[in-house]
């Protein structure tokens, strides 16, 4: 690693390559190039570990190369190309890199590939527009042991840098499917024998009651394979979208709050399923 | 309301009053004046309903006055002073007002006042620095039916506009105590017979196991009055702070995620307590 620390390969902040990487913060550049940015040590570490074939290039400052040497060791072990760059070059590529960023090929996962694995827990984000919220749901789905996340309708681009950062690496831990057709996705989940539950404050089922009854054969039964639908952060699920589900479930609100934020509600629902699946 | 729609009282964006309100986005102006900003219809509505004696003034555009007439009716019923202002004036006061904002007197709640009410569920944020996270925890605590939130150590200013917005009005639903002395707060909670649980990924107790055993007299027993300690978003609780608690509890991580974000973990813990208290 010593020679890397001495002379970074890339030192020209005006190089075309630098501008091309920086442009990946915009959706049009991402979709043109078919690649996206992963910023910061945690994201790059998980990308190199779990999605090495997608990694085109890693850029690292000499200081970050020393500090995160285990990430670079993983990169070397997985034949990932690493280029050292001056702090100025990395900063010009991204304001959120903390010395380490990667460019990855955008890989698409089809819902059928997920269904072929007999998933037991799936999170469906319907028209989720806030990048941080979408990323936080992906992270929570991973933590709760979900098998996949599906983004439907006009949800945020999953490769938005804020979304990628908010996943904290979970983007590389479980398949994330993008499919605009909400009704089609729900129908296919149901055909694959998942119970589809819509999370909504107006739900006729209380989540705690469902958890009490899990495994007792009542419907909906949280112990069964389940897909949760979560709606837009401002307006929730439309009545039409909620009506696609087998049941509408509310997270109990015990204080004076009118609602939980989307990511918090999603986390509570996914953990309830994960708890019901445990036994 | 018609006369209000015609001629706003305030139209001069350069007025001293406008600059004084705008300055409340900064901590020093807030602490000098002993007041803070509440931006947007949801926050103002809850402030007027639940904290009317603290509301110094509400500013509203003619359009927002029509759209949120029920908020202004509540204001009138609670003798809250409302001033109409041009859209330009409101926009100059705050970029996040959506036509409606309020200036409130900062009111302090002492921990002893909370303890006097025999609380059953309290959230303690230790060195929580991100304004959005702190606000989201306050909102989740409200939703889970918690009796209070305490911010200790060097936590973010609860009157930071981002924090206030993230609480979505919950700031006015339950007492929020600010007390730097983490050890002192924990000791006083324990003397008030609350079990203090530190939420930490390294915890020796699994949250789901505690929920299984709740009410069976084992320790810690989630069915008992409980205070949860949540640490900083980046580094969690220090070992010293975690050691103050009666037990350290981990939220189970079932996928490959290393952690949940702070607000998500707090929500899961608070809802587990709320579930245990239900029976």
TrEMBL record, chains A, B:
Pfam families: SpoU_methylase, SpoU_sub_bind. It comes from the Bacteria. One of its GO terms (molecular function) is RNA binding. One of its GO terms (biological process) is methylation. Residues 37-110 form the RNA 2-O ribose methyltransferase substrate binding domain. Gene3D superfamilies: 3.30.1330.30, 3.40.1280.10. Keywords: Methyltransferase, Transferase. GO terms for cellular component: cytoplasm. InterPro entries: Alpha/beta_knot_MTases (IPR029028), Ribosomal_eL30-like_sf (IPR029064), rRNA_Methyltransferase (IPR051259), SpoU_MeTrfase (IPR001537), SpoU_subst-bd (IPR013123), tRNA_m1G_MTases_N (IPR029026). Belongs to the class IV-like SAM-binding methyltransferase superfamily. RNA methyltransferase TrmH family. PANTHER family: RRNA METHYLTRANSFERASE 3, RRNA METHYLTRANSFERASE 3, MITOCHONDRIAL. This is RNA methyltransferase, TrmH family.
């Amino acid at each position: 690693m010593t020679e890397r620390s001495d002379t970074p390969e890339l030192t020209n902040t005006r190089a075309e390559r630098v501008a091309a990487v920086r442009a990946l913060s915009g959706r049009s550049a991402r979709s043109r190039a078919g690649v996206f940015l992963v910023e910061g040590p945690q994201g790059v570490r998980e990308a190199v570990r779990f999605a090495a074939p997608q990694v085109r290039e890693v850029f690292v400052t000499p200081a970050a190369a020393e500090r995160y040497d285990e990430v670079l060791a993983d990169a070397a072990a997985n034949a990932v190309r690493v280029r050292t760059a001056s702090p100025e070059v990395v900063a010009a590529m991204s304001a959120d890199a903390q010395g380490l960023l990667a460019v990855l090929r955008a890989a698409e996962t089809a819902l059928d590939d997920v269904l072929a694995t007999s998933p037991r827990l799936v999170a469906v984000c319907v028209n989720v527009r806030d990048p941080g919220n979408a990323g936080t749901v992906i992270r929570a789905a991973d933590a709760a042991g979900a098998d996949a996340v599906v983004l439907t309708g006009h949800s945020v681009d999953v490769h938005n840098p804020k979304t990628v950062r908010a996943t904290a690496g979970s983007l590389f831990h479980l398949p994330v499917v993008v499919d605009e057709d909400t009704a089609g996705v729900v129908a296919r989940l149901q055909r694959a024998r998942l119970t589809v539950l819509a999370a909504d404050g107006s739900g006729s089922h209380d989540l705690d009651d469902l958890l009490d009854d899990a495994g007792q054969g009542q419907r909906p039964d949280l112990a069964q394979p389940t897909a949760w639908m979560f709606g837009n952060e401002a307006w929730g699920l439309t009545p039409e979208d909620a009506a696609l589900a087998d049941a509408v479930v509310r997270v109990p609100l015990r204080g004076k709050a009118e609602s939980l934020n989307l990511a918090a509600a999603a986390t509570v629902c996914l953990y309830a399923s994960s708890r019901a699946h445990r036994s």
